[in-house]
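The records we work with from here on pair a chain with its fold. Here is one such record, which you should read through line by line:
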Amino acid sequence: MRSFVALELPDAVRGEIVALQAALRPGRKVPEENLHLTLAFLDDQPEPVLQALHDHLSQWQAAPFDLCLTGLDMFGGKRPRLLYLSVAANPALIAVHRHVRQIAREVGIDLPRERFRPHVTLARFGRDLHEEQMAQIGRFMARYGSVTMPPFEVSQVHLFGSTLHPEGAVHEVLATYPLRT
């Protein structure tokens, strides 16, 4: 099963993100129900591996923490492919990310080594952006680039299953792990 470990966003934050997305013309906006912050993308995993991951995550303890989404950025350089909301520097988030990846490796999931850039994806762009669409993205970034969402408490982590469909991915919460001291 295609899966990932992530943080869900509170409804109020999601609502503000959807309002922000409405001002963006080009791109495929991430549906409100799919807005999240990925801690570890696990790719396709067999049920026994996901069960082992679940067992380990169920035993894990970490304290809740506050998180703030602030500032827009893009992946893809001169030809952007993805617009996202950045996350304010947060040592607790980094620790949770590292621990989730460590648990995943312990149960046999081979994760690629990559720098963690915590973000919430807002929109994806095709390779065929024309000049006017690039200008629209530029104007959007100039107007909203320094946006800051209200801070919120992270009190749980989720294991998601993800099914790909022609109209986009459908995410389903498979398990929830409360953060507690």
Q: What stands out?
A: The domain at 2-67+89-117+151-178 is CATH 3.90.1140.10 (Cyclic Phosphodiesterase; Chain: A,).
